[in-house]
Design a protein that fits this description.
InterPro entries: PNGase_A, PNGaseA_N. By secondary structure, the protein is an all-beta fold. It has helices at about 130, 300-305, and strands at about 20-25, 40-50, 55-60, 75-85, 90-95, 100-105, 115-125, 135-140, 155-160, 175-180, 190-195, 195-200, 205-220, 250-255, 260-265, 295, 310-315, 330-340, 345-355, 360-365, 375-390, 395-415, 420-435, 435-445, 450-455, 460-475, 485-495, 505-515, 520-530, 535-540. The structure holds 2-acetamido-2-deoxy-beta-D-glucopyranose (NAG) (12 copies).
């Protein structure tokens, strides 16, 4: 959809220069932490990411000993505080601890003059087993300093451990967390695909439950994957507008080359996307904490407890005839593993396995010539696996794992492809049950409408309007709370590229956010921005701080 990759849209000028540092933020619920608990805060790292390409920050992190027994904490959070002044692209940040990716973020694009700053608190309580051991903590934030790019990301990362007490019990934790990652010790542990990421993993033979979490985001020719055009129609798109391989993307987890589960990814828009001035000071949903995807791998326990290594693969595929994608996606994953109290091996059988290698998809459209097409891609994915699992201590569990997902993407191009519209719908119902009790549940709907219009054939200025939502009812695994998140964001803006000069832009960004969870926490925020200023901000619910 873009003349150049959206990462190349830079902010170098402000419509109405602010008098002080612009405080950027993402709309999300406050962290669920016991504010009255004893806290131990540790400085994990402090680093100015200037020319940092290939030079991640690698530090040793030890668990604190003065907030109760190690591993008994009620919660753990990370506080990432960043400031930047100058001109710079949005950059991806990969937080890795003990070779496990635990948070994927991206940066706000700065402006020159007063600069921008933000703080984001990330709940990492679900990774307590990793934080209970000393280990290597890595932040990869590949930044470039070169002609025209001088923004240095000055970062500080603190970890806070909250002591547990009768009022605030220890966070639930798995017995083991196993990475599906590159295992690199000097950089972020995500892999660039294609080709696929594969890792041989040997599980303890008394494993009784396994829950996967997948990280996946498009980059380069795949950053705006939802605007990529089906190959059948791609010859009608003028050079430099977008890429081929269609818009459908499915992230797959394979075990010994068989599909174990999939994710239809949420379309994250980074702060250089479409019209960078729309994301000041409010990021698109998911840009600062990228959504992750949860699968129940428990039904595969019967084949994984034989003491042998098994091949876990993460890939990203399209709906094109050979399923290939462009370069690239960054992926990684982890397994939360629950062991039986008995050391005796688990046994069992997979009693039903119904999963096609690829989603069912169809491409259709209308071709009226160069730059004048309609393209429609529709896809469905159904997976159903059942198993009987017998633990060493004699517990018999019947596991049912079902994924039922739908996707459609309708794109129109007019006026030599300078007028573009997109309507994407992605939804699904993912459930697993263990003897009838829900273990993983993810009912989601990610509607995404975007219009993009170049105002002049030189492709130097354009307007865009976006209306997208993140509606998700999620139980990631039985160790965590069930949550409901409903976020709708509507934005519009204008952008003018001035080669060799100062770019110009404006934008509005309206948000309706609602959160509730199975512990009774609620939070609602209405917040609107126009041209860098907050025009409405209302908070309510029992998590509201104001
Ligand atoms: C996060 O850390 C910054 C310093 O890096 C500090 O100023 C700020 O108060 C912290 N925020 C919270 C909520 O702990
Ligand atoms: C930002 O950098 C510019 C120079 O590029 C400098 O003039 C300005 O004072 C800086 N602003 C802050 C808030 O440090
Ligand atoms: C990092 O990995 C490399 C290559 O696998 C290995 O040679 C090196 O010893 C490792 N370093 C540390 C500190 O573990
Ligand atoms: C199960 O694993 C344990 C620990 O690795 C090993 O000692 C034992 O022999 C294994 N049992 C079987 C039946 O594979
Ligand atoms: C269509 O767009 C392409 C690339 O943007 C441009 O090179 C070409 O001249 C345009 N054609 C017409 C008829 O405007
Ligand atoms: C692991 O799976 C991948 C993807 O299916 C395959 O390409 C690779 O050859 C497999 N590796 C092994 C060791 O079986
Ligand atoms: C898949 O198809 C695309 C588009 O036709 C082509 O560029 C690519 O080389 C093919 N890849 C493989 C592995 O066949
Ligand atoms: C698994 O299947 C085998 C062969 O049919 C059977 O002997 C065994 O009892 C089954 N185990 C379970 C836990 O269902
Ligand atoms: C999701 O699927 C489950 C089991 O197939 C069904 O019971 C439930 O009603 C579905 N939920 C929604 C919201 O469609
Ligand atoms: C868009 O750019 C063209 C030429 O590049 C200019 O004539 C036109 O006025 C610009 N539109 C706006 C709204 O600035
Ligand atoms: C995009 O344009 C179409 C046609 O003008 C309009 O119906 C739709 O509401 C627009 N979508 C957005 C997100 O502005
Ligand atoms: C944004 O700037 C453009 C170009 O100057 C202007 O046409 C438009 O009216 C501005 N948008 C708003 C909402 O003021």
């Amino acid at each position: 959809m873009f003349f150049l990759n959206s990462l190349l849209f830079l902010w170098t000028w402000l419509l109405s220069p602010s008098k002080c540092v612009l405080e950027d933020f993402a709309v999300t619920q406050p962290p669920l932490v016991p504010v009255d608990a004893r806290q131990c805060t540790i400085l994990v790292l402090q680093r100015d990411f200037a020319f940092s390409f290939g030079s991640a920050e690698v530090v040793q992190l030890e668990p604190p000993t003065s907030c109760g027994p190690i591993g008994s904490w009620a919660a753990i959070t990370l506080n990432f505080t960043v400031s930047v002044n100058g001109t710079q692209f949005d950059r991806l940040g990969i937080f890795t601890f003990q070779n496990v990716e635990i948070w994927r973020t991206s940066t706000f694009e700065p402006t020159r003059g007063d600069g921008v700053a933000w703080t984001y608190i990330k709940d990492v309580s679900q990774y307590t087993p990793l934080f209970s051991e000393p280990g290597v903590f890595i932040l990869q934030l590949d930044n470039l300093i070169q002609t025209g790019l001088d923004g240095i990301y000055s970062t500080t990362l603190h970890a806070t451990y909250y002591a547990s007490s009768p009022n605030h019990p220890p966070a639930n934790k798995a017995d083991l967390i196993i990475p599906i990652s590159t295992l690199a010790n000097d950089t972020g542990n995500d892999a660039s695909v294609p080709p696929a990421l594969s890792r041989a993993i040997t599980l303890p033979n008394n494993t009784v439950q396994i829950y996967a979490e997948l990280f996946a985001s498009g980059n380069g020719q795949e950053e705006d994957w939802y605007f990529n055009v089906a190959n059948e129609f791609f010859p009608e798109i003028p050079d430099g507008i977008t890429f081929g391989q269609g818009s459908f993307r499915e992230v797959r987890l394979l075990i010994d080359n068989q599909v174990a589960g999939v994710a239809f990814p949420y379309p994250v828009i980074f702060t250089g996307g479409f019209v960078p001035s729309m994301w000041r000071p409010i990021a698109a949903h998911g840009a600062i904490e990228l959504p992750t995807y949860f699968l129940d791998v428990t039904p595969f326990v019967p084949i994984l407890v034989d003491g042998n290594p098994h091949n876990f693969t993460i890939d990203v595929v399209s709906a094109e005839s050979n399923h290939t994608i462009n370069q690239n996606w960054f992926v990684s994953g982890l397994l939360q593993v629950v062991l039986d109290s008995s050391p005796l091996p688990t046994t069992g059988n997979i009693t039903r396995y119904e999963a096609d290698p690829f989603a069912k998809a169809s491409v259709s459209g209308t071709d009226r010539g160069i730059g004048d097409i309609d393209v429609n891609i529709e896809a469905t994915r159904f997976l159903h696996v059942e198993s009987d699992i017998v633990s060493g201590s004699g517990q018999v569990t019947h596991v049912v794992w079902i994924q039922d997902l739908q996707y459609s993407n309708f794109q129109t191009y007019r006026n030599n492809a300078t007028v573009q519209t997109l309507q994407q719908r992605s939804s699904g119902n993912i459930t697993s049950s263990h003897n009838g009790v829900p273990a993983v549940a993810d009912v989601f709907s990610y509607p995404f409408d975007a219009n993009f219009t170049y105002l002049f054939p030189d492709l130097q200025n354009w307007t865009s309007t976006i209306d997208h939502s993140y509606n998700r009812s999620l139980l990631p695994n039985p160790l965590r709370l069930a949550t409901i998140t409903m976020e709708r964001q509507t934005t519009s803006g204008f952008f003018q590229l001035v080669p060799g000069g100062t770019n110009f832009g404006n934008g509005t960004n309206n948000n309706t956010f609602e959160y509730l969870d199975s512990a009774g926490n609620t939070y609602r925020r209405l917040v609107n921005a126009a041209f860098n200023n907050i025009t409405l901000d209302e908070e309510s619910g029992n998590l509201a701080v104001n």
